[in-house]
Design goal:
The complex is a heterodimer of chains A (209) and B (764). Chain A is mainly α. Chain A is 77% helix and 0% strand. Chain B is mainly beta. Helix content of chain B is 7%, strand content 55%. The chains are: A mainly alpha (209), B mainly beta (764).
């Protein structure tokens, strides 16, 4: 009898904890699904805040902070009316929180984007500061994971968007984009882990046809 | 009995089972069918304005919301019990409150307090133009200085396109708001720089000695500057040198004027660097191609070298050293106005060295230390003579004083420390001390062998304290004071300084400043047999400024009153000596500045206008008049356009100044009198420059090249700076620029790891 009571208690507790991690996965999945639908600045901030709440509650998961930062960085590319410096500082703060839990190349990619967005405010003058910061993040990331598809994607699209006479150009970017696609296809996707980039690369490759 | 006991046990078992089932059910309820509590409310700031995009979080849960554009939020939570509700928003202090979740709706009114932050806070700007790479209010940056047409990469020449400074072309220095060039002092990394410009040559403005690329920040204060600086009645030019270079590189350059080569080495760990540069300039070729008004007995020739090291002592600490030496000479001959058929000759050899060592460090707990020492040695060797048409030295009775030799060595030491303590928010208290030592000698020899030797030694000791008080994000005050003691004058002064800034809108602010400024009599009027005191100026400034991302507008109104200016008397035809401090004067005016980087695509331009109304009685003036270095109206238009396709930058500038007064002052044995007066014609100058960067962003290129072509006064407009009079005041000749138009062609190469490649690879 005692044994069965004990079993019962254990069962209940395990249901409870299972429910807990299930709750994390469900919440993450629900918010990740929003990435495809959110379009507005208010929406991205809301999404970022939602991820941040999960991160603050969980304390040992880096992914919520990563997505909270990614959401703001996506907003940084789409809305030119916002204060890029304030936004980038917030992204970097979120990345620092994620890095404290797990230091990896994915976070470096977001830091690179944040610094790049700051640099683009005034490229001539911010080349040396924010530009260098972006470069440093890229190099750190490639050191941690030389085949990270998102770092490769950022490199390729930089070349893609640079005029030919300045050493960039679509032709030069093509092999880089193809390599990125290869890396993306070969990527072992872990649940909840970042896997973005494919749609963007395919869209860019489609422009060659 | 047994049955009863068994039944009892059964009952207990049943009870336990029931209990656990219900417990299980309860747990399931919690997990599956929770009762929801609705939490909603509105978020406002202290002024009652809604705060959008604030994040509301039920601490340690996933539950929360983001406020909408009217500051409202709403969410539901299945949690039960007491929780902390945290609200955060950019620019506000986080707020935390406790809520009881029981299923009943909760309505909240949350008020957020503004966070005093450097990015949002008002900046005290009255009287100063800040130029630098910092993100705060900047007007010009180092690249702007280098690409201002007509400035030829001279810091002060570029600053002359800002309101407040005069377009004085016949002598060097910044003449600010009715002040003389001596009323502007220059500081590098906090310490005073003596001999910032090359030694004066009659009628030819000299450049500053230091390259704009040495500096990352420039503050050009046209009045009302901080108590950290003193001994300048009108203006302070505060330069901050660069820290570690971004990379190792070798540079060399060739131009019609000079050759230069240098190397900068950055240590692998990026903690230290060193560098050396050498340049040789000779104006022979340029003067062959472009006819100069003056006849050169020895063409200007400069040897210059500098060395630096910078060591990062910690995350926040850095030691910087910069050392410079220069040896240069030139000799000119001009037709003498005093005696027809003869020439005036002037020959100068100058040696200068300058050393600056500075250290800054954060001491923790909000304490910061900034300290520096500088030493400089300057030696001028000047020979003046009268020549006949065969360039042979002649001595004409009456004009014998024109044949002389002057040797003037000077030694200068400056030391300063400033301690900062950050108090609450952005409020800072700053204090420190400064010591300036100068020892200037002069050995004057007349052709008859008569010698006049002088020595002026000054120990100037100062202490100062200042505080920046941020009352709110929108209102800040700077209160300061400075106490100086001069051993030379044997006097002490106390100078209070106050400024206030108020943010009138998101991008606009208004500031006012008041201050008292003291300065020693100029050394060239010393030594004096009389007891002298400090000259004094009081500044009143009101400013309005609006800065959006791409445009800057500012308007400034000022009034400056001068007291105790130095009056002089002539002891020999070559020298005026200070006799008392009975001079006075004032200056008032209004200035406008507009810079716009967006209205015309890819064009960046600025317009400055200054109106100045000034009069003064000083030196040997018979009474107060508008001095010859002050024009009523001054204006500049500077425009730059970089054409990416051609990798070329086009820069032009137009400067205008209304005519300046000129006069002759003669001594009739009793009094000084104006024997002649007039006004020069208006001054116009259009300059143009072009920078071509062939390897810009080119992959695989190891050399970064800049080709420069600049043309000063491209239309050859006649310019008259003033008039020179003969010793008897009978004849006058215009003071003209050395040549009507000047053309500069140069190529500069930088070898190093080209960063453009990284930048393309890593940046969108």
């Amino acid at each position: 009898m005692k044994k069965s009571i004990l079993m019962f208690v254990i069962a209940i507790f395990s249901i409870s904890t299972m429910a807990q991690s299930d709750k994390y996965v469900k919440a993450m999945e629900a918010n990740l699904a929003k990435f495809d639908t959110v379009k507005t600045t208010a929406g991205f901030i809301d999404l970022s805040n939602a991820f941040q709440r999960i991160g603050d509650a969980e304390k040992t998961q880096w992914l919520p902070y990563y997505y909270a930062a990614l959401s703001l960085s996506t907003m940084g590319w789409t809305d030119n009316g916002i204060d890029k410096d304030a936004n980038a500082e917030k992204i970097k703060a979120l990345c620092a929180k994620a890095e404290a839990i797990d230091y990896n190349a994915e976070i470096c990619a977001v830091v690179n984007m944040a610094a790049t967005q700051q640099m683009l405010v005034d490229p001539q003058n911010r080349w040396g500061t924010n530009g260098a910061e972006a470069t440093a993040a890229m190099q750190k990331g490639l050191k941690l994971d030389p085949d990270n598809p998102r770092l490769h994607f950022l490199q390729a699209s930089a070349v893609y968007n640079t005029p030919e006479q300045f050493g960039g150009g679509k032709d030069k970017a093509r092999p880089m984009l193809e390599k990125t696609l290869e890396l993306l296809n070969a990527e072992q996707v872990k649940p909840l882990y970042p896997h973005w980039g494919k749609k963007q690369v395919e869209a860019m490759l489609a422009t060659y046809k | 009995m047994v049955y009863k006991i068994n039944y009892f046990i059964f009952e207990i078992k049943l009870f336990i089972v029931k209990f656990f089932y219900s417990l299980f059910a309860l747990l399931l309820m919690v997990h599956i069918l929770p009762a929801q509590t609705k939490i909603s409310g509105e978020i406002k700031d202290k002024k009652g304005k809604p705060v959008p995009s604030a994040s509301i979080t039920l601490k340690d849960t996933y539950d929360g919301a983001t406020s909408d554009s009217s500051g409202n939020f709403s969410f539901t939570s299945a949690e039960k019990g007491s929780f902390a509700l945290v609200t955060t928003a950019v620019g506000y202090k986080p707020s935390e409150q406790s809520v009881q979740l029981s299923g009943a709706d909760i309505q909240l009114k949350i008020i957020l307090k503004e966070e005093v932050s450097e990015l949002k806070a008002v900046v005290i700007t009255a009287g100063s133009f800040e130029a630098g790479d910092k993100k705060r209010v900047t007007v010009l940056n180092s690249i702007d200085v280098a690409t201002t047409a007509g400035a030829n990469a001279d810091v002060t020449a570029a600053l002359k396109t800002l309101p407040g400074a005069q377009q004085v072309g016949e002598s060097e220095g910044l003449f600010v708001r009715g002040g003389t060039a001596a009323e502007t002092k220059t500081f590098i990394d906090g310490t005073l720089v003596n001999n910032f410009f090359y030694s004066s040559v009659p009628g030819i403005a000299q450049r500053g000695r230091f390259s704009p690329f040495l500096f990352k920040g420039t503050v050009f204060s046209t009045g009302g500057y901080s108590a950290l600086y003193g001994q300048a009645l009108s203006s302070a030019l505060i330069l901050e040198s660069i820290d570690l270079p971004e990379r190792s590189s070798s540079d060399f350059g060739i131009s019609v004027l000079s050759l230069n080569a240098g190397h900068q080495h950055l240590a692998k760990n990026k903690k230290s660097s060193w560098g050396v540069n050498y340049s040789y300039a000779n104006l022979w070729l340029a003067f062959k191609a472009i006819k100069q008004r003056q006849d050169y007995s020895s063409v200007p020739e400069y040897h210059e070298g500098d060395a630096n090291f910078r060591i990062k002592t910690s995350e926040t600490g850095i030691i910087k050293y910069y050392g410079y030496f220069s040896s240069n000479r030139l000799g000119i001959r001009t037709a003498s106005i005093d005696s027809a058929g003869y020439k005036d000759a002037f020959d100068i050899r100058n040696f200068n060295m300058y050393h600056n060592l500075s250290y800054r460090e954060s001491l923790g707990n909000g304490w910061k230390l900034n300290t520096g020492i500088s030493y400089s040695n300057n030696k001028d060797n000047i020979t003046g003579s009268m020549l006949d048409m065969q360039n042979k030295e002649v001595a004409i009775p009456e004009l014998q004083y024109k044949n002389f030799h002057l040797e003037s060595p000077g030694n200068y030491f400056n030391g300063k420390f400033v301690i900062d303590k950050r108090l609450m928010g952005l409020t800072v208290v700053r204090f420190g001390a400064e010591y300036n030592y100068s020892n200037e000698k002069s050995y004057f020899t007349l052709p008859n062998g008569q010698k006049f030797n002088n020595s002026i030694i000054e120990h100037l000791k100062s202490v100062f304290a200042e505080t920046d008080i941020y009352i709110t994000n929108d209102l800040a005050a700077k209160l300061g004071g400075r106490l100086e003691n001069s051993s030379l004058l044997n006097k002490t002064n106390i100078a209070p300084r106050i400024s206030l800034a108020y943010k009138t809108g998101k991008q606009s602010q208004a500031s006012v400043a008041y201050g008292i400024f003291y300065q020693n009599p100029e050394k060239r009027y010393l030594p004096s047999p009389y007891s002298l005191t400090f000259s004094k100026a009081t500044h009143y400034i009101a400013q309005y400024q609006k800065v959006t991302g791409k445009t800057t507008f500012r308007a400034e109104l000022f009034y400056k009153k001068y007291y105790d200016l130095v009056k002089t008397d002539q002891i020999n035809p070559n020298q005026q000596v200070a006799i008392n401090n009975k001079g006075y004067g004032d200056a008032k005016g209004i200035e406008f500045f507009w810079r716009d980087k967006k209205s015309i695509k890819n064009v960046d331009y600025w317009i400055s206008y200054s109106y100045l109304d000034t009069k003064r009685d000083f030196t040997n003036f018979p009474y107060a008049i508008q001095p010859n270095f002050a024009a009523k109206h001054t204006a500049s238009l500077v425009a730059k356009k970089f054409v990416m396709k051609w990798k070329t930058g086009f820069n032009m500038s137009y400067t205008y100044s209304s005519g300046r007064p000129y006069y002759h002052i003669a001594y009739d044995g009793m009094n000084y009198k104006f024997t002649d007066k007039g006004k020069t014609m208006d001054y116009h100058n259009v300059s143009f420059s072009l920078n071509y960067l062939p390897n810009l962003m080119k992959k695989d290129s190891k050399v970064f090249t800049v080709l420069v072509l600049s043309v000063n006064n491209i239309f050859g407009i006649n310019q008259v700076y003033g008039y020179n009079y003969s010793y008897d005041g009978v004849r006058k000749t215009p003071v003209l620029p050395p040549s009507k138009t000047f053309v500069f062609i140069g190529a500069f190469f930088s070898l190093g790891v080209d960063r453009t490649e990284d930048a393309i690879n890593n940046n969108l």
